[in-house]
Amino acid sequence: MLLKLSGEGLAGPQGFGIHPGALAQVASQIREVHQLGVGVSVVLGGGNIIRGMAAAAEGMDRAQADYMGMLASVINGMALQDALERQDVPVRLQSALEIAHVAEPYVRRKAIRHLDKGRVVLFAAGTGNPYFTTDTAAALRAAEIGAEIVLKATQVDGVYDADPNEHREARRYDRLSFGEAIERRLGFMDQTAIALCRENGLPIMVFDMRVPGNIVKAVRRERVGTLVDEGTEGFPDEAVD
Hints:
Blueprint: E1 2-5, H1 20-35, E2 41-44, H2 52-57, H3 62-85, E3 91-95, E4 104-105, H4 108-116, E5 120-124, H5 134-145, E6 150-154, E7 175-177, H6 178-183, H7 191-199, E8 204-208, H8 214-219, E9 225-229
Parallel strand pairs: 1-2, 1-6, 2-5, 3-4, 3-5, 6-8, 7-9
Antiparallel strand pairs: 8-9
Helix pairs in contact: 1-3, 5-7
């Protein structure tokens, strides 16, 4: 499986930077999954340090801002690698940007070999190209390594038909089709990433990463959020099995 981990998920209650408690909690959940014998790979974002699109909106060159975001994700990868190693989890960090002193360069066959040997593989620096989000990087890496599912760890408990922070009447989907997600332009993931998952038959599970145990539950396909696949849509009170 491939876990898409946002940088914000490492920030904890402070909202920025890397919070030791949040980092340790994420590492502990990944260790639980690894102990199940599941191949674990992770794509990291860098939004807790800098968001490329936000910086570009303030006047910075978009490509420059995106490269800064990629470097931020490498910093997060280094932090998570250290946290996992302190919990005795074998792990390798690969970067789409060449930074040989701190990370291996991304090589697809080498990543698969690490997974075959029981190592957790962390993918940093997105796709290595500006104008592409880490969501798209997650879909791409998942397809390349033959993952069975993309776990999208977020700050909300699934996909809603409207922003639940702005609309109290917003309803959460239990299951959603790729077609509906694209047609309605639901913002849980960028459209390129959703389309790439659809083309490669990769289901997406969107769930709240702040709840301890949710990553393990998502791996076991328990209902912890919203499943996005080729199935039909439904709200929790009209769930589709």
